[in-house]
Specification:
Blueprint (H helix, E strand, L loop, with lengths): L1 H21 L15 H4 L7 H19 L4 H20 L2 H6 L7 H4 L1 H24 L5 H27 L1
């Protein structure tokens, strides 16, 4: 119950931050950081997979309603959580996480390099789906790829900053 409450508070803070602060800051055409993805990265690996898909859809729809993006956040959140399920089953060692007393993959459990690949892959999947739906034309393919890469780097750096703030 305490873990659920912690995740709910983090979801509220990140949703508010994304919807009312970061969306309103003009960072140019290429950079659109989305630090709310931290919510799905820090969810426990033993969390109900179908429940997490529903939560991702509802949370993505909340971000869509407050930012006027018409379902792109919801679709990309669901795609990221769906991929997270496979990545967790394939690469997250549940037994070693239990021995360390952790329930999610973090820099403390697997190290910074593994976390970079893990979180980076999830962020890239989310941003690729998001920008694919946002641009929605093949002519903008290179713009979509460049926006995905730049926004993924910006989001990853913001997530590392938020993780260091939340940890304290």
């Amino acid at each position: 119950m305490i873990e659920f409450l912690r995740i709910f508070i983090i979801a509220f803070v990140l949703g508010f931050l994304q919807s009312f602060i970061i969306t309103e800051i003009d960072m140019g055409v290429w950079l659109r950081p989305m630090p709310y993805l931290l919510l799905f990265i820090i969810t426990p690996v033993n969390f109900n997979r179908y429940g997490l898909l529903v939560i991702a859809f509802i949370f993505g729809m909340f971000i869509d309603l407050t930012s006027g993006t018409f379902g792109t956040h919801a679709a990309s959140c669901v795609a990221m959580v769906y991929a997270k399920n496979f990545i967790d089953m394939r690469y997250a060692d549940f037994d070693s996480l239990k021995l360390q007393g952790e329930t999610y993959v973090g820099t403390e459990t697997k190290g910074l390099l593994f976390y970079f690949y893990y979180a980076g892959a999830l962020i890239f999947i989310h941003h690729f789906v998001f920008f694919m739906l946002d641009y929605f034309e093949f002519v903008s393919f290179f713009r979509m790829i460049f926006s995905t890469i730049v926004s993924s780097i910006g989001t990853f750096l913001l997530i590392l900053l938020f993780k260091s703030i939340i940890k304290r």
